[in-house]
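4'-phosphopantetheinyl transferase family protein structure dump, as promised
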Amino acid sequence: MAAVGDDTAWLTQAERERWAGFAGAARRQQFVAGRWLARLLLARTSGANPASFSLAVDAEGRCIAPPPWRASISHSVGWIGVAVARDSRVGLDLQTESVRRDWRPLAVFAGLEPCPDAACFYRHWTLAEAWLKAHPDITSLSTLRGLRWQPDAAGPAWQGQVGELHWAFVGDAAPEWVNDLLPESLQPAPGQGWSPIRPA
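structure tokens r here:
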């Protein structure tokens, strides 16, 4: 985040408006860092200049990249992740376990009861969030109540964990990790493949 600085002139008008709507400085920093990381990854993938990418924001706050690119941004506590794809859907979700978060009410809200432990909850929750981000026609996570997942090496979703950080990815192929764009980046394991049993 320090490398990005406080200058937001490179953000699009829609991004600046969303940035201005955040009350806390930390949330604003997360937003700016995620947008810059998305541009860095798009530049790495396409060979273009990071500043040449004009990113928009849809009504649900999802990142919209210029065609043929698609991008998904997620953050949790101090972690930020970005996924990009060309001519295919993409969704990424990060969730960090916290002793201050009671996951049980969230499991009830998401229709995930009975959910025996936190690992089960975070697996279903991150997969559902990533599925939501990969499908712009879905406008609310509540529409995914009861969505279940079964192991499937072919995807279209992959989920894993690094310490207390849980991640899930939805796409047309398993994720390929890029961890040299910023210092202290993670290199997660490939993760378990999953497919939805009853998509909304």
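The longest strand covers residues 69-76.
lmk if u need the other ones
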